[in-house]
Amino acid sequence: MQAFDLIIRNANVVTAADGFLCDIGVRDGRIVALGLGLQGAAQEVDARGRTVTPGGIDSHVHLDQPTGDGSVMADDFESGTRSAACGGTTTVIPFACQQKGQSLRAAVEDYHRRADGRALIDYAFHLIVTDPTEDVLRRELPELIAEGYTSFKIYMTYDALKLNDREILETLSVARAEGAMVMLHAENSDCIAWLTERLLAAGHSAPRYHATSRPMLVEREATHRAIALAELVDVPILIVHVSGRQAIEQIRWAQSHGLKVYGETCPQYLFLTADSLGCDDSFEGAKCICSPPPRDAGNQQVVWNGLQNGSFEVFSSDHAPFRYGGPDGKRAHGETAPFSEVANGIPGVETRMALLWSEGVRKGRITPQAFVALTATNAARLYGLYPRKGSIAIGSDADLVIWDEDLDIELTNEMLHHNVDYTPYEGMRLTAWPAMTFARGERVWDGSPLGEPGRGEFLPCARPEPAKARRRESELPE
Ligand code: URP
Ligand code: ZN
Ligand code: ZN
């Protein structure tokens, strides 16, 4: 019997901490040796000195998630995870969203049915808590956290999803008691509703007014409030899809006061602006409707600064796949539908890694190590998947990307494998793309998508690392 199933030779390995040249020995889907001159494998791949990073962990994706408004997500677990693998992501964490009135357990079972036998790469689930009844808070949530659903999202906006401050406090308290990680969608719902009504009354209904209806201050206020509520309860939180300066300032303030407040940002806040929603009243801008909306060039720079200086822990896609053509995506309410009725969200699971490598690492904005931390390692730590996922180390899953780095290609939707009919990043130049992606040692991308649906496994998550460090019971907030 051979010592290894696979050796990847001459790999310029990059982790969140290091960079070194070595061979990677893989057996039974795990990394079992890192060294020079490894011998004895059923299969060998010569990386020829190219960069090899851990496979990406996209810790914010929406797959096959019912919306309840007539729109339908274009990607299920098969197309979404195939697309992820082709772009160098080997683990996704989508959401199991509770409908109001539904038990959390029923939501989780529903999402397992959607994923079972379909995923090409490994996946975990975040919960979305929309109805924190006594039974949910006292029984279901603690039980599910103990079973490996150790993170959940809370919305401060969207009528069908949002919690009020009292409900947020109750839910955060459960996270504190049980050691879970809470993700917050921070936008002030009433401000958005008030602005939306006034815009529509004035006849301003085109997609571009989506950005006007959700200015930075509604995100800043909600981010501030989320931080204050978490401080009161004394629990770590992560603010998701942060779009610009004012929200980042709130996160920095919290971090500088020793609060465990983490930030996530996404490609749309680096590469899109409010102008991407259109400069006239055409419906085309619907392609870039997402919340919070993209801002402007100044805010893009502040988001880059936040990636450089550690304000952000994770860089996720927030892949929310709606088709532009056809009756059930962005046009579910017709092409003349007001912005407030257009499905929120944009695709990005396949382009996240290459965009950040091309624009971040290749342009000298971030180091290769920071890239690995932001796209894989930190998510693994925050969501209880480390060290199985998120690193290149003995014992870790052999989730690996060999990079092609000297490219100059134009990004087009035809290159991609999602089930969406557009990419918001059409026409951007890319200087890098994964040459090969390995998931638990199996090649799932080498220029063509490989791997069978159903090979991806569900990953129960441990309690996140930050949840272990909390204030003592006796200490009260100032
Ligand atoms: O517009 C967005 N971000 N859609 C996806 C749902 C969410 O809030 O993350
Ligand atoms: Zn959100
Ligand atoms: Zn999202």
CATH class of the domain at 55-370: Alpha Beta
Overall mean confidence score, pLDDT: 97
CATH architecture of the domain at 55-370: Alpha-Beta Barrel
Secondary-structure-derived class: alpha/beta
User: What is the fold named in CATH at topology level of the domain at 55-370?
Assistant: TIM Barrel
Number of helices: 12
Which consecutive residue ranges, at least 5 long each, have pLDDT under 50? none
The percent range for helix content is 25-40%
- Give the beta-strand count: 19
What's the CATH H-level superfamily name of the domain at 55-370? Metal-dependent hydrolases
Function: Catalyzes the stereospecific hydrolysis of the cyclic amide bond of D-hydantoin derivatives.
GO molecular function, one term: metal ion binding
Pfam family, one: Amidohydro_1
Family: Belongs to the metallo-dependent hydrolases superfamily. Hydantoinase/dihydropyrimidinase family.
Comma- or semicolon-separated keywords:
globular; eight-stranded mixed beta sheet; alpha/beta; 29% helix; binds zinc ion; 478 residues; phosphoprotein; D-hydantoinase; nine-stranded parallel beta sheet; Metal-dep_hydrolase_composite; 19 strands; Amidohydro-rel; TIM Barrel; binds N-(aminocarbonyl)-beta-alanine; 12 helices
